[in-house]
Design a protein that fits this description.
Blueprint lengths: L4 H9 L1 H11 L4 E6 L10 E5 L6 H8 L5 E4 L2 H7 L1 H10 L1 E3 L5 H16 L4 E3 L19 H9 L4 E10 L2 E6 L13 H21 L14 H12 L7 H5 L11 H8 L11 H14 L7
Parallel strand pairs: 1-7, 2-5, 2-6, 3-4, 3-5
Antiparallel strand pairs: 6-7
Length: 298
Amino acid sequence: MPYSSIAIALRKTIHKPLMAAFRSAVNNRVKLVRDESECKQNVNPTIYAAAHVFYYDIPAICSCIADSVYILHGQEKEIKATSLIDYLGLKLNGLVSFRRDSRISRAQAVMDMATVLSNGGNILAFCEGTWNFSPNLLVLPLSWGILESVKLANREVNIVPVACDLVEGNYCTIIGKTLKYNTRDTSSKMEFMQTLRESIASLVWELYEMKTSIKRSSLPSPPDRYWLDYIHKHCAEIAKRNQYEEDQYSYKQTGEISLCEVLAEIYGLEYKSMAADYAAYRKIMMICENWTKPCITW
């Protein structure tokens, strides 16, 4: 059984040598900026809820966590197609894999996480559901599958916000303060996820402030070309990856729709993300800019 107490204990024994291999995957450019979780002194299992920025944040974050963690992953086939060595490393570390386009598979992943937690194992989850390609959101809306797993595990579980980013050539990680979730208070689920999202966003912003400033005058025209190049660079890190596909997996509240999507429908255009069709994206963005300009009345 991959999630049994014996399997978890085995992974704890190989954690240190395996993390040495993980660090070598990013040329040992791993830096733990701060760990405020105090999970070392706590016997309860932990869910590390992390912002997802790029391909290598998995080995970077795992290398900074003192204990072994099972990785919640929705793209097992893509990882295998990109690098067989990376795939074997993740399997050896411990995976809770699922298909993002299958509700049944996602539900099974929640039950698998609960099994890991009930047997004393830890989880690393990227609750945004995909890489964050947004040019203006520090953290995308979070899915609350981790809370369902905590409820099913029927034991106290730590939930810890985590952020990782590339700063001055190093993969820097901040592990935040432990949050407590009351499984008996179901009405607090959305409120807790918002608190978790804000906690992760604060850590992401702290890493942003550590980066070298970029002058606006040095950006290409229009400036969003800089963001497009950034997205293409990260999409190239994994096989068959594109922003339009990933946008479909970001968590959205039922009935949630953006102004761009509304205006695209009004003007008979197909709404596409920047990386999927830049020309179509710019056309819709220009309509949005004109739409949101303040009206001058006499």
